[in-house]
Design goal:
The protein is mainly alpha-helical. The protein has a two-stranded antiparallel ribbon with strand order 1-2. Strands 3-4 form a two-stranded antiparallel sheet. Helix 1 runs antiparallel to helix 4 and helix 13 crosses helix 14. It starts with a helix and ends in a 21-residue tail after the last helix.
């Protein structure tokens, strides 16, 4: 539609000109890209983390006060561009409002971290969660689900020129199971559609992940952890590039694989820090590798056994099981439109399963060995958590 295309072009030009404060015809790319994330799909925390990296130079360094100001201002510029009220103001008035608001928020952040000259993303998250949301409530609008749209605004019409979707579902069966979270609760129904199974098969096959040895992949991922035992998004991306031979993949496949791996990574991100706990992430990632269920379970168990005594405490077993639940919900259609997963269900299922194991075995020591876990599972525990059978890709993805 030519009219719609022209309107979109004008809209994008208006956004670009809003960042051209000094009317030079050029705008800083990181400010424009950071601000425009507001219009994209995704969770607020992911947008903030991505934009923060744009202003940090190497993607990892903390921000100085000036960079933090531009980071905050980039969102405000796009927000004001979306406000009808700004049409009643002059360009100088809008610029003054945006600048004053960004400076006020910047001062508040720096005051919160008064012992530092720079702010990392963790500091920013602590500021926001500790009351910064009252100083900058407009940051909540990074979540497009919180925007109130007029019922008169129609949704996007389907394109008549779009190519028909590739039939990846042929020969695939959906995977359905109940995720139990309480003794007297029927559980949450989880469904991994035939299309999602087919997509997973395609990505794991072309990347060769489904043929890679679980222990090797887990060790590779663990080697990317920092001194605190966490893996950053930058480190994870680098590990995947060295693990998967991308030179042999088409651009479309690379894009799909990158999108999939990014979703896997962010499903383990909790809180403002753009990093994941190494053991838990490697444990969950083992689902995507080759090998038998028993081998994956044992390999993942060993990841949490830091003192090498062959036993895990209740808390460690909860994280162990939580990692698998996280992966399955990530690839299922229980994921919401923003790419997030229901952490309350993940936590409830893993906590209930752990309690069930320890109660059934009446473990006075409060620790569990792998052999005890394996015996419990074989002798009936599989009925409580049938989803562990999905660790063997040959039973569903590669069937």
């Amino acid at each position: 539609n030519v009219r719609v295309d022209n309107e979109v072009q004008i809209l994008l030009q208006n956004y670009q000109s809003s960042f051209d404060i000094h009317q030079t015809g050029y705008v800083p790319s990181n400010q424009l890209a950071g601000g425009l994330t507001l219009l994209c799909d995704g969770r607020k925390s992911h947008k903030l983390a991505f934009s923060f990296q744009l202003f940090s130079g190497d993607g990892m360094s903390p921000l100085k006060s000036e960079d933090l100001f531009y980071f905050l201002r980039s969102f405000l510029i796009v927000l004001f561009s979306c406000c009808a009220q700004s049409l009643e103001l002059t360009a100088d008035q809008v610029s003054a409002w945006v600048t004053d608001t960004a400076k006020m928020c910047c001062r508040d952040v720096m005051h919160h971290t008064s012992r530092k000259e720079c702010v990392d993303f963790g500091d920013f998250g602590e500021w926001y969660n500790g009351g910064g949301y009252e100083t900058a409530p407009w940051l909540e609008l990074l979540d497009l689900g919180k925007w109130a749209l007029s019922p008169e605004i129609p949704g996007p019409a389907p394109s008549n020129t779009a190519p028909p979707p590739e039939n990846l579902d042929e020969g695939m069966e959906p995977i359905n199971f109940h995720l139990l979270t309480h003794d007297n609760h029927p559980g949450h129904f989880v469904s991994i559609s035939a299309h999602q199974v087919a997509r997973l098969k395609r990505l794991l096959t072309v990347s060769n992940l489904s043929q890679m040895e679980t222990k090797m992949v887990c060790q590779h991922i663990m080697s990317c952890a920092d001194a605190s035992g966490r893996i950053s998004k930058v480190a994870f991306d680098g590990s995947m590039r060295s693990l998967i031979q991308g030179d042999m993949l088409s651009v479309d496949v690379k894009d799909s694989l990158s999108e999939f791996l990014t979703a896997i990574f962010f499903s383990f991100v909790r809180g403002p820090a753009l990093s994941v706990p190494a053991e838990e992430f490697a444990c969950g990632f083992s689902v995507l590798c080759g090998g038998k269920k028993s081998d994956k379970l044992e390999c993942a168990f060993d990841l949490f056994d830091r003192d090498h005594d062959g036993k895990l405490m209740l808390r460690e077993i909860t994280l162990y099981l939580r990692s698998f639940v996280t992966i399955f919900l990530c690839v299922s259609n229980t994921s919401n439109h923003s790419g997030g997963i229901p952490f309350d269900i993940v936590d409830g299922a893993s906590s209930w399963a752990t309690k069930k194991i320890f109660d059934d075995l009446s473990l006075p020591s409060g620790v569990l060995s792998f052999d005890e876990f394996a015996n419990w599972y074989t002798q009936g525990g599989y009925g409580c958590m049938p989803w562990l059978e999905l660790l063997d890709l040959r039973k569903w993805v590669l069937a």
